[in-house]
């Protein structure tokens, strides 16, 4: 990663705050600024639609505080259960524990 700053400035050195360092785009010429914008103009591609069954059920019940339904006997598809786990615990943030 490269950090572009104003000439002669040291980022966040003693006595220098983030607001003292001018952003890199403030140093660009109008032509370079246009080029920097057009460089990121291309839209990101969207992923393909899933073809299999969903592994997690998302709960869209209005007013429900828990987004994911959890179970102590959640059945994981065989191709996703290479370790042979009997139980899958899902936390409120949907991380696997």
UniProtKB/TrEMBL annotation:
Name of the featured protein: Protein-tyrosine-phosphatase putatively secreted as type III effector
Organism: Pseudomonas savastanoi pv. glycinea str. race 4
